[in-house]
Task: structure prediction
Amino acid sequence: MGSRLALRNWRVPWRLIALIAIPTVVAMGFAGLRVAAAAGSAANFGRSAQLAALGQQVTGLAQAMEDERDLSANFIADGRPAADRATLRRRYAVTNAWAQRVSAEMRGVGGAFPAQTQADAAAVIARIADLPNLRSYAMAGDAPAITVITNYTLALADLFTFDDAIAQQAGSSALVGSVRTLGSLSRMKDQASLQRAILEAALVSGRFQPGSLDALTTAQTQEATDLASFGTSATLAETQALNNTVAGRPIDLAQAMEQRAIVLGGAGRTLRLGPGANEQWYTDMSYAISRMRQAERQLADAIAGQASALHQGAMRSLLLTAAVAAAVLIIVLLATVIIARSLVRPLRQLKAGALEVAEVRLPGEVSELSTAGEAGQSVEVEPIGVHSTDEIGQVARAFDQVHQEAVRLAADEARLRGSVSAMFISLSRRSGSLLERLLRLIDSLELGEQDSERLADLFRMDHLATRMRRNSENLLVLAGQEPPRRWAEPVSLADVARASVSEIEQYERVVLDLQPGLGVAGNAVADIVHLLAEIIENATTFSQKSTHVTVSGHSLRSGGVLINVTDSGMGMTEEQLAVVNWRLENPPDADVEVSRHMGLFAVAHLADRHGIRVRLRKATGVGLIAHVWLPEALISHDSKPTSWDRVHTERASAVIEAVTRAARFPQDPAAAAALAAAPFAAAPLAEAPLTIAAPGESLGATAPVARGPATAAAPGGAPVTAPAPGGAPAVTAPPGEAPAAEEPGTTSAGGAPAALRAESQQVIVPEPRPRPREIRLPIFESVESDWFRARRRPPPRAGVPLDPHRAAPSWTSPSDEGWRAAETVLAPAVGGVTASGLPRRTPKANLVPGSAGARENRPARAADSAEAISSRLAGFQQGSRRARAAARGAHSPDEQP
Amino acid sequence: MMSGIAVAAAACTGHGSPAGTAGATGPEKPDLVVAVVPAEANAGLYIAQAEGLFAQVGLHVTIKPVVSAQAVIPSMLHGSVDVDGGGYVTYILAQAKGIAKIRILAAGFALGPHVNEIIALSKADIQSPADLRGKTIAVNQLGSVAGDLTYTALAPYGITPGQVHLIAMPFPAMPGALAAGKIDAAYETEPFVTEAVKKYGVQAVTDLDGGATQDFPLTGYAVLDSWAARYPRTAAAFTKAIERGNAIAATNLAVLQQVLSASLHLSPNITGVMATGTFPTSANPVQIQRAADLMLHYGQLQEPFNVNALMGG
Result:
């Protein structure tokens, strides 16, 4: 970017201003020079006009002085008669008036005028001051007329010199010419006046004084010279005007008289030109002079007017120049402002439009496209609001193209994503349906399978298939597809949790501790099951096999239900937790990363779908806690509180299954491992006597029955196990002991396993999966309460031959009688009391009718040969060893999947 | 005043197109006959004709040369001549004697330095006007302005009209008469002065353009008063054209010389050195009054004559 002051970082208006700055300054400079010149010219013309006006006065003064001089000459020639002094003084007064006026105006010639003009003005003032001296020569003494005339003439010369100064200021050649003309005329008039004075004096005295004739002829010649000079500088009109003005018979007569006087004087003769010749001369000459004065005044007025006009013209020119300069400047500035605006406004619009596209419209369109999918294929971008055809407009169009391209890319991506999703969905559905079929197949295989080993394998297959289905469902979630399964009615939270647990591999490590009486809205059940399954599986996967994963749930006072999934695994670092939590809160779009953390992604999306909040945090000790908060909207509180703790039942069922497995598949290492982990299962069982009592209660069975047999009785449910041959296992098995669990499958008489197996068969066979998704472990099914089942499927198929043991109390079933008979157990037939006071059992007295009947048909147990028993024991030993080894191996820290 | 009217009329007519001037604003009588004695005095007329100034104001002028100005006024009265280019003295006399009522339209010519001179043979012992006492002096016309001017020129020397003998003689004949000794001096005008100086070695005794007769008005252009009243726009147009021609004559020597040489059939070496007079650009009563006053002084008029009567006043 460089410095902020670098030219390229300047704003556009400043650049434009800089662009015009230099020409504007230059133009202003020239305009200023022009204005200054015009102002100077105007001032010059102003001074010229002032001098011209002054010149008018000066010519008047000159005329007055000439008259005074000529009168003085006459006075002196007359011998200074006292009678004429008054006439002379009146003449002096006239001159003084002119002198005063001229002096006053002459002082206005200040420093602004050229030095020469000032000097001339000073000379005029000095001459005016000298007037009294001149007059003193005339009034008294013996000074001859010619001397006085000469003195006056010298003084007058300075006045004419001043008139020439008018021209020095004038810039106009016409004015200069006029001023020169005026000067010639003034001098010509002065010469005429001089002739008047000289000849008058000569005529009065009757002869020429010495030098007078020469002075007269000189003046005459000078007048002709001045006239010639006038002719050269004057215009034709001025010449004509003078000719027309200064003409007439008196002038002709005066000329003739002067010629005659000169001829006479030249001949040395006395001047006798007849009586009154001097008066005639003076009158005629005065007429000539007055005509000249008239012409002079006209000329002086013309000059003053000319100077004034020039001055006004200069002022107009000055104003015009200034106005034009100012107007040009304003126009330039306006044009610059307009052009700058025309540049800046579209640029700002472009910027605003670009930012809007970048920040608002493009993201909006992209998200719209990504949600709308195919619909947004032909999105037309709205062009930026700059419609000019200049470069800025082209940039705007280019940006529109970029925008269009971005939207197109987004559309393409959305389409691609949509096709990927479609691909996912298609794959998932395809594999899902295959898996469903597989699961059904496995189920049917399991049903028909007698071989415990194979059955175990089938179970494993069953599990794997279930997990595969869940993966497949994850794909559906990833593709944004709604779950295929829905429930219309709420499902109890415990059922939901249980369903989740059933979907994971290590279900036996899960401990449920859920607040009863909570239900989950039917439409969210499938997703919550899925979500919990993912979380619980994660918990089980990332914790040691020997540890439990606790799932606890309770409603919050602030609303909703909080489910905590706690494990004791190795946990995560804070950074990982932050990342994971962020991902949970901001479900990412499907990408490669998602495929690596599919579970997390599925959880985030499922949670997002229903407004569920999931957070991971460190447990107090080791491991993690996953908080799953279900919003109130997903919760229904109307589910009846279960009368028995299904959580514990669940746990029991897990144990039972483990036991069952171990019984069924003695050689199965998995079963052995499950058994090796028995303590964890047994302990809860020990503390759950109510578990078994519960069904009894509901079935109307007496509590003591349930309580008595404890663990061993558990597998089949009280009523079922009771008829087990001998019942020994139940009785002999020390309650709360793990090995006791093994007994039914290993040490006890084969009745129990057989019964169990039979029962499990009974359970499974008549149970067609109404919803294939709902996979139930056989034993789990077996311990599920009837009412629970009834709630889930309200219309029980009455005609279907249900398992007699599981028939709901409200339904009739063939085994009802058996149940009623079982009630007799409440009051067992006692065969007396032993010596020690213990009740003595009456053999077969307390049998439930029909319950043991089948045994009659059974093949004798003795059929088992010793070899078989020994091999079975050896197998058990073998399995026990393997289980221990496996348990040891399970303790190894290899917890990574 | 006359010039003012002329200028105003010119302003109306001068710049109109020829077609337009034929109507209410054009000259009533476009075709004019101007009778003149061919001389330098009529240079303004020749220039106006040569430069097309008449055409500019919508006039078609025919210049009719006459030998003597005396017969022109009868021709005007007869109607064969419209405008007379002659001397003021003639007009004043005609008006004063009641021969015709004259209207002066424009000034024609006035004295200039060395235009009209009294010449004599240089070998004759006439050095000054004072020496002309009792001599025979030829003038172009007796009883004209020539005699008055001659008398005026001699007056300062104390020579009265009775002390000289004036005879009439045409201008071109004077130099020869001088050389032949028939006359002592001659009132001669240009271009004959220059020719005489060159041919016969005459010299000027005195220049009439000086003293009381300086810039003395000599000729002008006049019509009958009735004519002027009948053709006011024509009169104004003619005045305008003549004044323009005189202005050119007064200021443009080259044109003047060219026109003189063409109109008067003079060789360039004459026109190149001959003196040129004054061509007034306006007919001014103050000036013309000098002629009347001079005529009165020398008895040609018996009573004062106001020239305003000739100016339409």
